[in-house]
Design a protein that fits this description.
2-enoyl-CoA Hydratase, Chain A, domain 1, 12 helices, 326 residues, single chain
């Protein structure tokens, strides 16, 4: 009986403790959700002064290679340059990065970064976008290109640098720029449109599975994954693809009038050196070389916008647990 009494007391204490923990966790969740609903700050804009980064790297290397006397003289020279630079109003280069996926999901950060730049940029300043994308959904990359047009419309110089790839939707973005730089073996072009989908209709029929589809509007659906596609539907879908391609070509022609569309709008891609011959790009140069040279007469600021994390993501970060939802 004594054992049962102690065991019952232990269970009661455990139940009380669990209830208390659940109450605390529930309260934290409710407060986090309430705070998120009222918060106006939905993300964070991170800014890095690239000139300082370059100078720090140079100093680290010189500290390892120069004599004490030479290093002392270098420090003295740098201080004199910094004082002189403070007296002169220098132009600014705002550096943005776009790493595109199929959905162009990076446009969520790009739109915030462009808005931030436009609040302070002057006509003598410049925006430099380091772009890497093999393209994706039309409407996603259309919006990304429209964000870059906001810069052009404000008469602010826009340079796009392609170190690896700017193809299809990526090139749609790049062609907006005043100047396009490309590494010698960067992949550029692919001015074309593609759509593909499997069709399981024969498999369904073989297994005696019916598929029914109801529409209002003759071309609400042209081709389907499970239904039996018709020649009329295929023709209409092809017309839509051709029209999208035509819009793509017109967009490129508007912003790169020097290109020969008959030559470059075939859906092919080219490496940087060949893209230069076709006037798809303006110069063979890496973004690193361009920015390092620009740092001599301009202040370089790299911007990156980070969206606000949910309370669950923050909790997982604090507990050391991370998850990816695919």
């Amino acid at each position: 009986m004594a054992f049962l009494s102690e065991y019952g007391l232990f269970l009661a204490k455990t139940a009380t403790l669990v209830a208390a923990v659940l109450a605390v966790v529930g309260g934290v969740v409710m407060l986090a959700r309430h705070g998120e609903g009222r918060s106006e700050n939905r993300g964070r804009l991170n800014i890095r002064h690239l000139n300082d980064s370059y100078e720090s790297m140079a100093f680290a290397l010189k500290s390892a290679t120069l004599s004490k006397k030479a290093l002392k003289q270098y420090r003295k020279t740098q201080k004199a340059r910094e004082k002189q630079r403070e007296k002169i109003e220098r132009r600014r280069v705002f550096v943005l990065n776009f790493h595109g996926d199929l959905r162009a999901s990076a446009v969520a950060s790009l739109r915030e970064e462009v808005t931030a730049v436009l609040t302070v940029a002057q006509p003598e300043d410049e925006v430099m976008l380091r772009l890497e994308s093999a393209g994706g959904l039309v409407h996603g990359y259309g919006l990304a290109a429209a964000q870059l047009l906001r810069i052009r419309d404000r008469q602010i110089g826009l340079t796009v640098a392609v170190d690896k790839v700017a193809a299809s939707g990526g090139y749609m973005m790049a062609c907006v720029a005043d100047r396009i730089l490309a590494a010698p073996f960067a992949v550029v072009g692919s001015i074309g449109v593609i759509a593909q989908l499997p069709n399981f209709n024969r498999l369904l029929k073989k297994n005696e599975v019916d598929f029914e589809q109801f529409m209002a509007g003759e071309f609400k659906r042209t081709v389907t994954v499970f239904g039996e596609n018709t020649e009329q539907g295929r023709r209409k879908f092809q017309e839509e693809i051709e029209d999208t391609h035509q819009l793509f070509k017109e967009f490129v022609k508007t912003h790169r009038p020097s290109v020969d569309l008959d030559q470059v709008a075939t859906g092919e891609h080219w490496f940087g050196a060949r893209a230069l011959e076709s006037r798809l790009v303006d110069e063979l140069r890496t973004s690193d070389d361009y920015l390092l040279a620009a740092s001599n007469d301009a202040d370089l600021y790299e911007l990156s916008y980070t969206g606000k994390k949910s309370w669950l993501a923050r909790l997982m970060a604090h507990t050391g647990e991370s998850r990816e939802w695919l």
